[in-house]
Amino acid sequence: MLVTMKSTIDKGGRLVIPKAVRMAAGLEPGTEVEFRVVDGRVEIVPSPLEVRLERRGRFLVAVPQEPVPTVTSAAVEEGIQDLREGRLDDERD
């Protein structure tokens, strides 16, 4: 999926990421992002989740260093339905 929109950087250096772009990228309030300059292009990417590896039985499991919100089965079902219908739900904040 390709989502493109324009925005303007204000005098304070702030940039508003349009809602459709945030939704397509899965950026929610509180999401930490990293800025990179690659070949003259500015890339904004979500910061990777800090994890530690723990052995649980015979499995090695990645455990987040900080609490992360629990994903409910209802949210998963809603996301699957959105994907099936090929839409982004712009009403969700």
What does this structure look like?
The protein has 93 residues and is of the alpha+beta class. It contains two helices and four strands. It has helices at residues 19-25, 73-85, and strands spanning 33-38, 41-46, 51-56, 59-64. 22% of the residues lie in helices and 26% in strands. Strands 1-2 form a two-stranded antiparallel ribbon.
What characteristics describe this protein?
93 residues; alpha+beta; two-stranded antiparallel sheet
How do the strands line up in the largest sheet?
Answer: 1-2
Structural class: alpha+beta
Q: Determine Rg (CA atoms, Å).
A: 17 Å
Q: Residue ranges: pLDDT <50 for 5 or more in a row?
A: 89-93
Query: What would the principal axes of the Cα set say about the shape?
Result: extended
Distance between the termini: 20 Å
The total beta strand count reads 4
**Strand content range:** 25-35%
Number of helices: 2
In helices, the fraction of residues equals 10-25%
The main pleated sheet reads as: 2 strands, antiparallel
What is the H/E string?
Answer: HEEEEH
- Determine the mean pLDDT: 84
